[in-house]
Amino acid sequence: MRKLIFNIIFVLLISSCTIPFASNRYNYRVASEFNVDSAYRILKDFVAIGPRVPNTRRHDSARNFIVSYLRSLGYEPNLQRFVVRRFDSVPLHLTNIIVISNPRASRHVLLFTHWDSRFIADKDSDYLTHPQPVLGANDGGSGTAVLLEIARILRHKPLKNYSIDFAFFDGEDQGPVGQTTTKSLKYWALGSRYWAKHKPQSYSPMFGIGVDMVGYKHAKFEIEGCSAFYNGYVVKRLWKIAAALGYDTLFINHPSLERFNSHIVLSQKANIRSVMVMENIPGRIYGPYWHTSRDSLNIISKKTLKAVGQTLITAIYNL
After folding, report:
1. What gap in Å lies between CA 240 and CA 247, rounded to an integer?
2. Does the structure show a pLDDT above 90 at 281?
3. If 242 and its partner were Cys, which of 4, 132, 202, 251 is the partner (CB 3.0–4.6 Å)?
4. 3-class DSSP string for 79-137
5. Is the torsion defined by CA of 298, 97, 313, 10 positive or negative?
6. What are the backbone dihedrals phi and psi of residue 258, each rounded to the nearest 5 degrees, phi first?
């Protein structure tokens, strides 16, 4: 136990010495406003496609939506197509969408999310609705909308010395039904696992920031345990920026339980020290909508989207 505590402290100290954020701790430059109305329009159009379950036409349409939007901004997304087997041996045809904004830059930061939605509503209170696919307005949709809006802002006002890159992972939410175990974890985060294994060896961003479930109207964002472990300095920086912007009632400076997500995969498998901005509902892990048929636009709040988007874009422009 004493050795584990020492290792955690050592990792956090190393992180604080090597991440090149601006030295100003409190007076953050708000170089651009996060347009929440634009982000909400993206989310509304994205959700209108329907559930984004792999091996369906709607899944294909959702992929095309993201790619077309990025191309309309002048980006050249790389489509990483692959096939993996679900926990029940069903082959899933998946696509990771990757954008390297400036390949020639020496310093990269990776922003990531997932765009698929769950194939069953297994957390519905009515078991008769369990076979229905989840719309995923918040779980998968909100993170996608926030990153697409950030991509739009950065296209109009790019950073000179950094490449802000984007990864929209597929197949992250197709894991088995029931309680997650160490053995069953391998069936979650399929897209980030595949990318971590096949990414170019020369691609080595300074760190990664993931967003997932960032639009719920009752969301709170406590500090997820594995994020603090893998890159404590970036976590502290984000939460301080949120407080400085007046979002301290949403970004709670308090630790929460570790929760498996793609940031752990990237930290462990791709050697990209990553953190996750992800809701934490006091008294429970996720909101009551999670993996249910209630995950629709009705639970989304522009206030929450704005808080997350503005915090991220402010952090980016204060690198």
Report:
1. 10
2. no
3. 251
4. EEEEEEECCCCCEEEEEEEEECCCCCCCCEEEEEEECCCCCCCCCCCCHHHCCCCCCCH
5. positive
6. -70, 140
Q: Convert the pLDDT of each residue in 222-232 to its tens digit.
A: 999 999 999 99
Rounded to 5 degrees, φ, ψ at 285 are -75, -55
- 183: its two tokens: 């053995």
**pLDDT tens-digit readout, 59-105:** 999 999 999 999 999 999 999 999 999 999 999 999 999 999 999 99
0.85 cut: is pTM over it? Answer: yes
- Quick check: 1 pLDDT over 50? no
Over residues 123-138, the pLDDT tens digits come to 999 988 999 999 999 9
